[in-house]
Amino acid sequence: MAKRWLLSIFSILYWIWFIITNIILFLIGCVIWVLTVLFDKRLVLLHQFSSLWGHSYIWLNPLWPLKMTGRKNIRWNRTYVIISNHQSMLDILVLFGLFRHYKWVSKKENFSIPIIGWLMRLNRYIELERGSTGSYLAMMKKIRRTLSEGNSILMFPEGTRNPNSGSLGPFRDGAFRMALENKVGIIPVVLDGTAHTIPKGKIILTGKQRLRVKVMPEIPFESFKDKTPGQLMNEVRELMIREFNEISVKSN
Question: Is residue 249's pLDDT more than 60?
Fold first, then answer.
């Protein structure tokens, strides 16, 4: 009972801190955008600030110890399609900890969230309206342009959060199609532990949860240039499943 009360108090304080810092840091982000947008065409500085801001809610929370390995596999001077499995909305805050330059591909609804959605638009992240063919085609066009400008992209090929945290859900082939069409390498990222941090529809944190992220080595374009998007998708998913099983065992 005492532990439950402590978690409730901590959770309330955490969310108060979250709201207050969001307001303050968004204003700082606006200033950064105004001062840099004319010479920083890819908005690298704003994205790095956003990464520090978002990831701070992970590394400043003692309930969520995070171990991230392999980040050096994402080289600063290269353009990639980065893909990750998806367990929770917390994944976004965790993956900001990659501290590399990329543009998120996210569902349209996230762009309507006050402050968070406004920041996503400032960063020129890429939105997708699920179930809309026109939106999907527009997204693919934006991804092509974004990659051609030297920005990596980060996508969740499962398309949505996987309710079964013990495995990876089915993949969609859009990310792999983009890697093939734009002749860029793929960086698979596997994460585990975020699914049980915050129960869906609630605000009380569940307690201490170990978070794990493994950035796998680049899969260079030359190694898959002759494959179809479907073949590439299935092969990469199998690689990620094996890695997921390994980090899941280690985190238990």
Answer: no
Give me the domains of the chain, ranges plus CATH numbers.
2-251 (3.40.1130)
pTM over 0.70: yes
The CA distance from 77 to 94, in Å, is: 22
Structure tokens at 127: 């939105």
Say which residues have a Cβ less than 8 Å from residue 5's Cβ, sequence separation at least 6.
none
Nearest-angstrom CA–CA distance, 58 and 96: 10
Higher pLDDT, 145 or 198: 145
Query: Per-residue b/e over 27-48, b at no fewer than 16 CB within 10 Å?
Result: eebeebbeeeeeeeeebebbbe
Residue 2: what pLDDT?
A: 58
Question: Kindly report the CA angle at 113 between 47 and 139, in degrees rounded to 5?
Answer: 65
